[in-house]
Amino acid sequence: MKSNWEHIDIPASFDVVQNGSLAELTSFRIGGAARFVLRPDSYHAIRDAVCFAEAHDMPFAVLGKGTNVLASDRGFDGLVIRFDTPLHEPVYDGTRVVACCGTSLTQLARETVRAGLSGMECLCGIPGTLGGACAMNAGAYGQEIKQVLRRIRLLRNGRDEWVDVQDGDLGYRRSAFSFPDAIALEAELELKPDDGTAGETMQRCMEQRRAKQPLELPSAGSTFKRPAGHFAGALIEQCGLKGTSVGGARVSEKHAGFIVNTGGATEADVLALIALVQQVVKEQTGVQLEPEIKRI
Q1: Phi–psi pair at 191, nearest 5 degrees
Q2: Residue 188 is a catalytic residue
Q3: Which helix (H) or strand (E) holds 277?
């Protein structure tokens, strides 16, 4: 990769990998190389990395587990902050939980159920981090993170601060706490005592995921947002697009709402297939599908 930053002096305190593969950092298994990849070991490290990038006019991006993301075939000539590791264990105080945003959402959901709490059981199986969930208001089977998120620690405008969640901060796959406006560091959740059904509900949701979603192939999760009054997957199937391919990208035969990487798919393949699906669905149903996937 020819880079504007080849000769920059990275501080010795930064645990940086050069030319890290974005295909290896994202669940789609697509993308070129990132000039620098930093996995922070503290909240201060995240702040210092952002300050360093800004001081050098270097582009930077934040990744959790790399789900819901499509990376560029050309790579990323800048710094990727890979925040996918919890910096501390969740702290419980009655029904309140404070957790690091690098924590696996599935792991946290399971742990809260084991702790006798309810409110996250349907989120188990979403393959991202708590921070990613806060950044897009992740949800499934009737539960969304906005239902339990009360406070969030953010790095934004050079400040590290806790803020209370207000009405309107979170909507359907929309959040005031998403990058680049902010980086979510920690979250405080308010759950409820388990009435005895949380474990069974969590198990049922996991079984539905395994039965209905193409978990055996790389993907970024659901490709399109749910249009008002419809389901994206049902519309796509209705238009006869299951199995439609462009290069290595294919509309899943198992769930038409997913585009999967059948091997060697590129960013260009996925974008072309998204455009084709949008065009056909619009022509046949009048509904404009909006992609849910974030770009790097």
Answers
A1: -105, -170
A2: no
A3: helix 267-285
- Give pLDDT tens digits for 245-294: 999 999 999 999 999 999 999 999 999 999 999 999 999 999 999 999 99
Clarify whether 292 is annotated catalytic: yes
Assess contact for 202 and 129: CB atoms under 8 A. no
214-295 maps to CATH 2.60.120.10 = no
CA distance 284 to 262: 27
| Sign of the C-alpha dihedral computed for residues 58, 63, 69 and 73 taken in this order | positive
Q: What angle do CA 176, 102, 50 make, to 5 degrees?
A: 65
- For residue 151, the tally of other CB atoms under 10 A from its CB is 16
Supply the CATH classification number for the domain 91-193: 3.30.465.10
| Catalytic, out of 39, 47, 151, 173 | 173
What are the sequence ranges of the domains in the chain? 16-82, 91-193, 214-295
The catalytic position among 39, 96, 209, 292 is 292
**CATH architecture assigned to 16-82:** 2-Layer Sandwich (3.30)
Catalytic residue among 222, 250, 252, 267: 222
Cβ neighbors of 48 (< 8 A, separation 6 or more) are: 11, 13, 14
Residue 108 predicted with pLDDT over 90 = yes
Q: Express each pLDDT in 169-189 by its tens digit.
A: 999 888 999 998 999 999 999
Lookup: tokens for 49: 């990395």
Give the C-alpha separation, 87 to 271, whole Å: 35
Active site residue 222: yes
